[in-house]
Amino acid sequence: MTETTGFEAYALYQSIKLHFTSDTYNFFRYNGKTNVSKDNFANNKAKYSFYKLSRKYNIDELRSFYIANFLETNVNWVGDISGIEGEENYKKWQKRNQSLTYRFEQDIIGLLNATQSPNEMLMVNDGQYPVLLKEMAQNTISIETVCILNDIMNFLPMWSKKITDDVVWPTYKRKIEKYTPFIVYDKEKFKEILKESLKEYA
User: Fold this and answer.
1) 118 pLDDT exceeds 90?
2) Any idea which fold 3-94 has?
3) Which of 54, 57, 60 is CA-nearest to residue 4?
4) Does residue 126 surpass a pLDDT of 90?
5) Is the pTM of this model over 0.85?
6) What is the CA radius of gyration of the chain?
7) Are 9 and 54 in contact (CB under 8 A)?
8) CB within 8 A of 202, min separation 6: which ones?
């Protein structure tokens, strides 16, 4: 174990945290770089948590680990996620992403069965949450499904205009927007799945 690996775990944590909590920082635009220094790390009270994580995960796994936890919970410091809860959040994320196609198909079928028409999934009535957002908030469908659907259809701007909740909705919106670039999927294939599902529904 060297200070560099612990420092890398720390630097990556800072960049993922900034990406998910700031409106201005973009992990991809800045290539994961922030202005952290080895002095910052040496003086960080939680540095041993970063050493521990750097021994457990390689840098790609650690990136996914951090993403999984920022999606799942409000992470105030690394100690919140360096124990069993953090591992559980990561396992749940892995499970969802390992079966991304199947989960997307099942979510779409469930959504179509729960509505009178496909449009109803996205409709905002009287400023209230649409069915799609409610289902995500209740963990009935995955956030990945919502991100992919929005990537295909771009309905977030319409939701932002019509949803009246200005407390929780902005948090959901940011999470969807910030997480989407990290999802690796075949857009054309998922468009086809959606198209076929809608055909069957019709």
Assistant:
1) no
2) Helicase, Ruva Protein; domain 3 (1.10.8)
3) 54
4) yes
5) yes
6) 19
7) yes
8) none
